[in-house]
Every structure is written in C-alpha cells, then in structure tokens.
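re: that chain from earlier
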Amino acid sequence: MTAFDAIARRRDELAAIRQDIHAHPELGMEEHRTAELVARKLEEWGIEVHRGVGGTGVVGVLRSGNGEAAIGLRADMDALPMEEANDLPYRSTAPGRMHACGHDGHTTMLLGAAQYLAETRAFNGTVNFIFQPGEEGCGGALAMLKDGLFERFPCGQVFAMHNRPGLPVGEYAIRSGPTAAGGAFFDITVEGKGSHGARPEAGVDPVLAACHIATALQSIVARNMPPMETAVLSITKVTGGDAYNVIPQTAKLSGTARFFSARARGLLEEGMKRVAEGVAAGLGATASVDFRLIFAPTINAPEQTERFAAAAAEIVGEAKVDRTKAPGMGSEDFSFMMERVPGAYLHVGNGDSATVHNQHYNFNDAAIPYGAALLARLVERELPKGAQG
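^ sequence. v structure.
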C-alpha cells in the first residue's frame, strides 16, 4: 500500500484533528493547547517529543535503522487575529481569533506524515518533525533557531509546504530560486506642534505631513527601484489625533515592504528614511522611521526543489506538478530556516476556497492526504531503507 493510500484511509481521523485545531485557534507564541495536542499525538505514536522549543514550538524525533542522514519537515501552528465569518460546526470558539491561513491544515498534514512514518519506518535515518509557533510575523522561526533548533536537531535538508487556494486539490506548485518575498514592517512617527484646530498657524500639523509622506513614499518603487527588481510598499495604518478640534502633536504611518533581494530591501529602507525626513522637514515637522525585517526572502535550493517535485510527481503524476510557479509577494519565515539548511517550500492545492487571510477562508480537508503523503514519501526517497549508515 502506498503512503497516499494508507493516509487517505485515515482522512476522517485526521480531519477531526484539523477541525479541533480550527475550533481552538491560538495566536503566535501562544499556541499552548495546539502544541500540547501535537506533543500528545506524537507520543501516542511512539515518537520522541521535545516541548518548548523556541517558546511553544514542538519537535518530534523519529529514528529508523542506522542511517546518519537527517531530514527536517516543518509546519506552522499559529492563527490570525481575525473574526471568523464561516458558519461551520467547528468554527472558531475564540472571539477575534481564526485559522485564516490554513496552519491548522499544515499542522495536521505533518501529523499525518508522522503517524504513517512511525508505523511503517520504511526509511533509514532520522526525521525531525518541526512544529513552529508564531509564523505570522511573530518571529517563531527565529525563536526556534535561537533556541538551538539545528544544533539540537541536526538536519541535512528541510522542507515545508503551504496550501494554495485556487490550485486544484491533488496538484502541487513549486519553483527553484525566489518563491516568496522578504518582508519588513515599518512605523513612521511624525512629530509636529499641537494647536487648536481653528488656529493651524499656531502649530505644525503632523497629520498633513503624514499625508504628504504617504503619497511621496510611492515614488520609491516607481522611481528609485531598478525595473528588474520587484518590490511593494504598502501603508496599512494611519493614526493621529483624538479630538475634532485639536491638531495633534504626533501622527503615525505603519505598513509593510516586500522584496526579493538585499539590494531592494536596502533601497526601500534608505528611500523611506530620505523621503519621510525630507517631506516632514519641508512642512516644518520631523519624522523618524523604524524599519524592521520580519521575513527573509524565501529562496528554494535547486536540488531540494527537484527532490520535492519528484516526490510529488510520484503521487499525482508529472502533469499535476507545476515546477514553474510564479514568485509571490507574500512572505514566509521558514525562509530563516532555509538560510541555515538547504531546503524547499512547496504549495499544495486547496481547491476553490476563499483566499488566505480572509474571514471566509477554510482549509480543505480533502487536501490532507496529498500533503501528508508527500511529506512521508519525501522521507522514504531521501532516507532510503537500503542505505547504509
């Protein structure tokens, strides 16, 4: 029986796990219930469990044979601070929290692979099942790395996947090289001089300066970025003032920048400081920029990309594996793990669902066997049982 057939027979059991996680979402670095559920399942299946890695992270270690090679498989566990709009039997029971990105499905797929591999042990070496907290901009990958992830659980290569709405269930997409953008969050604080709203000449209006800065920032990508570089700069939050008749002392712009190279990142950061400070000064105000790297660009290693794609093709056939997926401007902090260990990141079809980070999104349970079986088959291929330690 193939890995897919064996795991597909357990789809209902795995779907129940996924739906339980969905009903009890936890935000980044607060995944206590989810982490304990993961740890208990791994222990039930005879897998060595390490809790509290990087905070609420969990690592399961499974050894078979005498092989010295080790592979890492990673899934994220955190939810988003959103209110769910789905009418589901297992909808979120936590107000203001929702699994709107499918991390409940990613965690379940890795659990499905772990259960199968623990039973079959049709490999020779070590598998490290990495359940990561805080992927949604909370620094979870870096926290695990700081806690000695790869020193404590050495891996020769690492792999992860993400569901993709719009890609049919039973299909996969991957590309070698840049596949997801690096990301930074920023805050621009504009300081003026408060005054009565009826007497603007008595003060310096930071709201006006912030509005001009917001417009001028768009010139960085349009006029300072080389045409071959891809970048996005989005202001997503504007704050300032508390009363109708008071010009405030301070206004703030916040948002995100996305990029695929260190060069583009540098141009964005330098340009934001130059524009914000210059525009503010021209209007009699001052501005300071706090630019924080949250995600490195996700760069798939060519060799690991091909290995991941080849394993996928074994399951569904070459025609259903897209090896030329276009890069996306979304970000993924698995990138920090791949800066340390060669790896690849793949998309698995989620079918006709709402897009991720949408209040109507729901992970498609039909995708569970395709993700779990791919991870399991990848281990069997990369750590062949006949290999000598």
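The mean pLDDT is 97.
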